[in-house]
Amino acid sequence: MQTNEKALHIGRRIPECFRRDQEKIYRSTDRMFAILLGVEWLGAILTALWISPRTWSGSYSSIHPHVWAAVYIGCAVACVPAYCVYAAPGRVITRHVIALCQILMSVLLIDVTGGRIETHFHVFGSLAFLSFYRDWKVLITASAVTAIDHIVRGIWWPQSVYGALTVSPLRWVEHAWWVAFEDFFLILSIRRTVAEMWTVARQEATLSYEANHDLLTGLPNRLSLQGRFEAHLSRARRFGTRLAVAFIDLDRFKQLNDTYGHARGDRLLAVVGRTLLEKVRKTDTVARIGGDEFLIILDDMRSAEHARSVMRTLLSELDAALHTESGTISVTASMGVSLYPDHGQDPESLQAAADQAMYYAKAQGRNNTVLFSSNISDKAYRMAELERDLRHALSRGEMEVHYQPQVNPSGKIIGMEALARWKHPKRGFVPPGEFIAIAEGTGLIDSIGEWVLAESCRQGALWTNEGRGAIKIAVNVSALQLARPTFAAMVQRVLNSSGFDPRLLELEITESTFMKESPQAMEQLETLRRMHIHVAIDDFGTGYSSLSYLQRLPANRLKLDRSFVAQLLESERALPMIEAVVTMAHQLGMTVVAEGVESREQQEVLCSIGCDVLQGFLFSKPVPASKALGLLSIDSVVNDTIPEASEMASVDEPVAV
C-alpha cells in the first residue's frame, strides 16, 4: 500500500518537476535571445555603415538605404521579441516569435552585406542557438521561415540569399539539404536532452518525496507538516470551524525495540501509520514527527466533546492494531488533544498544548486520551522542570540511596532493600512515583539504576568488611534495564569494582516484567543465576498472576504486595489467600517476603503462616546509610512510631529503579 502511494505521488510530481525545469530553460533562453537580438541589431547598423557604400549600385543619398533598413527593420526585429520576453516570458508564443525574428535578423545581416555572409554562417548558427530551447517545434518554425525566404528571394535575388559568388541557380537545393541536415541532428540532440530532463525530473520528484515524507510509514514528516498545518488553519479561519490536533506517542515502544529488535519496531510503526491513515478522512492530515510520535489534524470538529469522541474511537482502533502486532510486550498509545481556537491560534501553540496533554495522559496510566486544559499546562510545566533537573541530578550529587530493613520472624535484620531518593535543592525529596516515571520515559533510568546498584553494592561491601554480618542487599530493577543486552555484564562490572559478594545481592523485578517472558529478559535472568545472584519477584499479586510461569522462572524469592498485607486483618479472604501463596512458594523452593507490615498483629499472623521475611514501617522506614548502620547493631527492630499515611505514600513507598 505504501509503495503504491509513493509511486502515485512521485508519478504526479514528475511532470511538475519537468515543467518547472522547462520553464527555467525557456525563461533563461528568452533573456539570452533578447540580448542577442539587440547585439545583432547594433551589428547590422555598423555593418551597413561600413560595407554598404562599396556594394550599393543605385543612386547615392545622404544616408545609405542599407543603413535605413538596418535601423528601422532591425529595430522592429529586435524590439518585438524583447517586448514578448518582458510581457510573456517562457510562453509558447514568445519562443516562436523569437525564432521568426532571429531568422529575419539573419536575413537582414546577409542583405546589408550584399551577400558577403552566406546562409551557412548565420542561419545555421541561428538554428543552433534556437536549439537551446529544447523544443523541436521552435526549430520547425525557424526552418519554415528560412525556406520561405529562400524560395521567395532566391528567385529574384539569389546573391542576397546564397552569397555574392553564386554561380548556379540550383544552389537552393544545397542549402535546403544543409538546413534539413542540421535540423535532423539538432532534433536528435533535443530528444536526448529532453530524455535526460525527464530522468532528472524523476530524481527530483523522488528526492522531494523522501524529503517531505517518512520513508518507513509513507506519512508526511515534520518538514512538510508546517505547510499542511497552515493550510488547515487557513481553512478553519475562513469558515469559522474548529480544528483538532492530536499528539500520539506509543507507550513502551523503546522496550519493544530493545527486546525484539528494530525490524519488529519498524513493522509496528508502519502498522500504526497505516491504521491512522485508514481511519481518518481524506481531508485530514496524519504525520509522523518523531521516532514513535504521530500528529493528526482533523477539520470540522463541532465541539470539544465531538473531538474527544472521535479521538477515543481512533485510539480504540489503534489499540486493536497494536495488540495484534506488539507480541508479549503490551505497546499502547497515549494521546493528547488540543483545539483551535480554544487552545492556540498557531501551529506551535496547538502542538505544544497537545504535547502537554499527551504527557499528562501518560502520567495518568497511559493508553488513554486527554483534552488539554489550563490545569494540565501547570502540571506539564512542573514535569518539564523535573525532567530538566533530573538530567543533572546525578552529576550534582542530588541522588541518594535509602535502606529499609528486612527482618526474620524474630525481628533480626537479615537484609536491606535499597531505594532511590532524589533530594531536589528547591523541592526537597521528590516522590519516587514522579521521578522514576520521568527517568523511564527519558532513558535516564539506565544511568540512575546503575548508580543505585553501584552505591548499594559499595555500601554492602563496606558493612561486610566492618563485620556487620552477611547482610543481603535487595535492589529494584526496571523492566527497561532488564531489556538491555548488556545488563548482566553491567552487574558483573559493578560487583567486580565494589568487591561485594554476588550471593548477597538480590535483584527485585516486578511480576509484570516476569509475565512478559521476553527471550532477552529470560536470558539475562539465567546469566544472573549463574553468577549466584538471587532474583525476587516483586509486587506479586498485582498483575495477572500465572501459576505456570512461576515454575519456569529462575526466581529465589517471592515478595507479597503491600495490598495483601493491608487487607490481612480486614478481609476474611485475605488470610487463606496469603497462606496459599506462602505454601505454594515454599513448595517451589522460594522464600516469601511480606511488604508493608505496619502493626504487631500483622507481624504475628504473617509469622504464624510461615512468612520468611518481613518488611515495613513497623520495623523502620527507609533511612540513609548512616542511620541504617545504627539499626544493624540492634538484635530486634520494631518501630513503634508509624509515619503518617501521606508521608508513607509520598516519600517512603518503594518504587522500582
What class would the helix/strand composition place it in?
Answer: alpha/beta
Q: What would you say the CATH architecture of the largest domain is?
A: Alpha-Beta Barrel
| Radius of gyration over all CA atoms, rounded | 42 Å
CATH H-level superfamily of the largest domain: EAL domain
Task: Report the average pLDDT across residues.
Answer: 81
Fraction of residues in helix: 55-70%
Structural key phrases:
single chain; 657 residues; alpha/beta; Alpha-Beta Plaits; 3 domains; 9-stranded mixed β-sheet; elongated
Describe this structure in words.
- The protein starts with a helix and ends in a 7-residue tail after the last helix.
- Residues 54-58 and 640-657 have low confidence and may be disordered.
- The chain is built from 25 helices and 14 strands.
- The chain folds into 3 domains: 2-210, no CATH class; 222-386, Alpha-Beta Plaits (2-Layer Sandwich), CATH 3.30.70; 391-650, TIM Barrel (Alpha-Beta Barrel), CATH 3.20.20.
- By secondary structure, the protein is an alpha/beta fold.
- The chain has helices at residues 2-55, 65-87, 92-112, 119-130, 136-156, 158-162, 171-212, 222-239, 253-260, 262-279, 304-325, 347-363, 374-390, 432-442, 445-465, 479-482, 487-498, 511-516, 519-530, 547-550, 562-566, 574-587, 600-608, 625-632, 645-650; strands at 242-251, 285-288, 293-301, 332-340, 369-371, 399-407, 413-424, 428-430, 472-476, 505-510, 534-540, 557-560, 591-594, 613-614.
- It is elongated.
- Strands 6, 7, 8, 9, 10, 11, 12, 13 and 14 form a 9-stranded mixed β-sheet that branches. A 5-stranded mixed β-sheet has the order 2-3-1-4-5, with helices on both faces.
